[in-house]
Structures are given as C-alpha cells and as structure tokens.
Amino acid sequence: MLERKVTVTFSQAPLESVLRTLRRQYGVRISYSNTALDLRQPVTLSVQNQSLRTVLSTLLANKNIGYELVGDQVVLHAVRPSRPKPAAGSEAPPGVASKNLTALPTANAPAPSLPPGKAVVKSASAKQSISRASPDGRLRAPKSGDQPVKADQPTGAVALRDSVAVKAVAAPDSATKLAIPEPEPEEIARPARTRRAQISFLGPLGSNGLRSGQTVNKLSVNLLGGYAAGVDGFEAAGLFNVDRDSVRGVQVAGLFNIVGRYLNGFQGAGLLNVVGGPGTGWQAAGLLNVAAQRVSGVQTAGLFNYNGPAKMTDAPAREANAASISPTTQKTVQAAGLFNVSSGEVRGVQAAGLFNVAGKVQGVQFAGLLNIADSVDGVSIAPLNFVRHGYHRVEVVNTETWPLGASLKLGGSPAFYTFFAGAYDGFGNGKRRWALGYGVGAEFLTRHRVNLNLDLAALHVNEEGRSWTDDLNLHNQFRLLVGFAPFKAGGHLRLVAGPTVSVLVTQRYDAERGQVYSSLVQGRRLWLDEGSATTRVWGWFGYCVGLRF
Which of 54, 300, 362, 369 is the most buried (most CB within 10 A)? Predict the structure, then answer.
C-alpha cells in the first residue's frame, strides 16, 4: 500500500482535508483520533507520481504526528515534541554529553570509541536504539540535505529506521553536523479492527461483544439494533444501525440508520437516515434523509431531504484550496414529497411537492409551490421562484386590449421565469375593467443589445366595475417581444415591442345583451369565434409595446 503512486497538490490546506482527499481519491484507509491529533495544521505540498510512503513522510514532518501500517490501514498517532535544538555550531562542553544532539560520522572519519552505556530511544515509527557519542568524540556527516541515518558498524553511534530524516546545518568551521532530536515515548491511537462477519441481538450483545464500537465489519446482521465502528460490505438490522465512523457498501434497517462520518454506497430505512459528514451514493427513507455535508448521488424521502454545506474551517481560503484538489463533479438528485433543503451547492435536480431551498444550483429545481436559491445555472420551475442572483424584471406595457399593463418577472435564470401580471382599462367614458393573472416565459440573448422574449400569460378579467367577476372570464395571451437596450448591451433599461395573439374564454352572462358576452372583443377583428350558449371562445391579433426595467 505504501508504494502506491500518488499525485497531489495542496496550498495551505488543513491537514484533515488533505487526509480525506488521499482517502477518497486513492482509497487509502487512514485511522486517527481527532482529539489526540491537531488536524488543523496547514499543509503546502506538490508531488507528482510519488509513493504514498514519501507523501506521508513529507506531509507529517514537523507536525508531531507519526504513522505506521497496521493491516491494510495507515494509523496516525501523536508524537511528543522534542526539546529545542541548540543553535547551529554550538558544541557541548568537554566531558558533557549533549542530551539533544547525537554527532554522526563523516564518510571518511573513523567511528570513535563509545562508553559502555547506551541510551535507548524510540523513533516515530519503530523500536530502534541510538547510542550516545563519547564526550570527546566528534562524528562528521556527509554534506547533504535530508537523508536517512543508518549504522554501518556495531560501534556506530546511530541506529534509526529509514523513516526518520535529519537535516544538516553549517558549523563555523564549514564542517557539517547533523542534529537529531531525541524522541520521547509516544501515544499510539488504538486502531479499529476488521472482522469478516458478526451477528448481534442488540448493541454489544453479539459476537463482537464490548469491542463492537472498535470493529469494522464486512458482513453485519443485527436482529434488533447494532453498533460498530464501521461497515465495509453489508449491514442489516430489524430496527436500527449505528456506525460511529463510515459505511462503504449497503446498509438497511427497519427504522433508522446513523453514520458518524461518511457514506459510500446505499442507505435504506423505513423512517430516516442520518450521516454526520459527506456521502456518495443513495439515501432512501420513508420520512427523511439528513446529511451534515454534501451528498453526491441520490436522496429520496417521503417528507424531506436535508443536505449540509461543504465543511468550512477558520480559514476559508485554505478549505477552498483543498477543495480544488478534488473537485466534486458528481450529480445530485433530491426528491421528496414535501421539501428539499441543501445548504451548499446542488449539481443536478431538486424535485419536491411543496418547495426547494438551495445555495448555488447547477441544474433544475422543480417544486409545486416555491423555489428558493442563491443563484441558478439552469432553470427553476415553480409557481414562485425567488433567486437572490437570478432574473428580476419589471415591465410596463400598452396593448390593443389594455391601455395599461404591468408584470413582475422572477426566475432563476433568463431561460425560464414566471411573472405576475395586472391590467387596467378605466380611462375615458368606457366601462371600467381590470385583470389579474400569472404567466411564464423565457428570454434569449440576454446580454446583447437586442434580445427576444416569449411570454404566455393568463388573466382573469373583471368587468363589473370594481367588483370581482365570479364567472369564467379568462384572457389568454401569447407575446413575442423584441427588446432593445438603448444605452448599452445588457443594460437594465429596454424598449420592448412585438405582436400578440389573444384567446378569450368566457361564461360571463351580459344582462344588457341577454347572452354570454365580454366587452374585450368589442371592435376586434376576430380570427376565432366559437362556442355554445353557455361558453364562448374568441380570438384576435394585437400588439404590445412598453418598457422593461
């Protein structure tokens, strides 16, 4: 595993983000304790096709963290910091052995004699001994940078594993000395163990016993409920599953599933699924799915889905750099009976019976009532669409039917928007009438000086003065509008004009005429005049001209 080739680039990224990137991109199983290790340390590293051993050694250098390979896992553990090094060129007084430095022989210098006693210390990853130099002996080292130190002869002063590197510093007499910190005994995190299969009744009442929380199972069957460190295969329970770390594979339960960190696979439950971190795969629940971070895949629930944002740190720039190492391009699908909420980015589809809420959307939002988002690169389809950085327009027009009309157009993008429309005709001596309605439309060539809009609106017409007409009296209108920006391309002000096609469907009974009739058709050249004694349909051509802001 440690010889696996790795290519990564990081710039001031948190150590924890780097470790997660290695785990996701290269399948490296890394175990560590969040409480025992400082994983917020920044990392800057760029390697091309280097072994994992080299990357880890460089990554953990000077961070008081060591590692070792246990089975198929890389286990990180804390290393107590060494005492400060003496200044370059300083020497121990005659007859006093330095406690923090061990002199090393040069390539041509003979090994000095040693006192009978040897001091034994532990390296960051092995159990080796290092002998102290004699008080008056001076051992030289080759002129080089970081290099492993090895003992070639029994009388040599040093015996370290090749995972420990030391750096040469210049002495006043131009000779090169190597300073080796004397490591202290270290704390090693207790790694999780792996078992091929386990069966339990409830929690620790099973084949793993009290070590259930420290065991990763390949196959896990829990009659009522189970608790484990993780799953790398298949897990099923009659009621619930709880895994404190991650699940890779399939997890099903009658009531609920809870995963502490990461999901990679399928999670199915009768009530709910909860993931404490990000996920890849499919969450399916009868009621709800909750993920603390982004899920790349599918979330389906009877009531709602929640998707948290990407993890943020105290240094957002660092996290952004780390995220650029492993950009997420997988699509996300959220489908729920009531609503979907995604605090971060959605790449794909959000579909809900009631409403959707998201940050940045790259795809489609579809809801029965309302879509809310910060920005949309795609379309938001719903009766109401509120997008902070979306399509917002106000239009004031004059048509052949309505002397004054106004529209408020809202959408995620110009590709699709909805609008509220109103119209009034009560000027002069004619009968007063007014209308309210709703419409949909699309805009093309938005950033050009000349653009095109296709609008379809439906307005309920009230012809009873100021009162509401209860009968069906619907004015449907299709508009083909050409917009012109007089000042600059993509400007906020546009002159709009174009032809319209109107179709009026009415059941309004006119007492003066004694028949179904509407004053909107008075004086029109009709291309459509159909209907019965109770319902009439008329059609005519017209125009629309106005301003758009």
Answer: 300
Pick left, alpha or beta for residue 516 (phi over 0 → left; psi -120 to 50 → alpha; otherwise beta): beta
Residue 95 and residue 93: Cα distance in Å, rounded?
A: 6
Q: Are residue 227 and residue 332 in the same domain, yes or no?
A: yes
In a domain, 109, yes or no: no
Which of residues 386, 404, 425 is at a domain's end? Answer: 386
CA distance 435 to 469: 10
Specify the higher pLDDT residue, 459 or 101. 459
Domain that holds residue 490: 391-548
The percentage of residues in the chain with a pLDDT greater than 70, rounded to a whole number, is 75
Q: Is the same domain home to 446 and 476?
A: yes
Angle between helices 15-26 and 52-59 (to 10 degrees): 170
Question: pTM above the 0.70 mark?
Answer: no
CA–CA distances in Å: residue 101 to residues 86, 98, 127, 160, 182:
8, 5, 19, 14, 7
**Together in a domain, 438 and 368:** no
Q: Would you list the DSSP string of 352-405?
A: ESSEEEESEEEEEEEESSEEEEEEESSEEESSEEEEEESEEEEEEEEESS-SEE
* Cβ-count burial 443-460 (b if 16+ within 10 Å, e if not): beeeeeeebebebebbbe
Q: What is the CATH number of the domain that holds 420?
A: 2.40.160
CA proximity to 378, closest of 311, 424, 332 = 332
Nearest Cα to Cα of residue 301 among 249, 353, 224, 343: 353
Q: At what angle do helices 316-325 and 15-26 cross, to 10 degrees?
A: 10
Q: What are the tokens at 70?
A: 């246990």
Residue 48's CATH number: 3.55.50.30
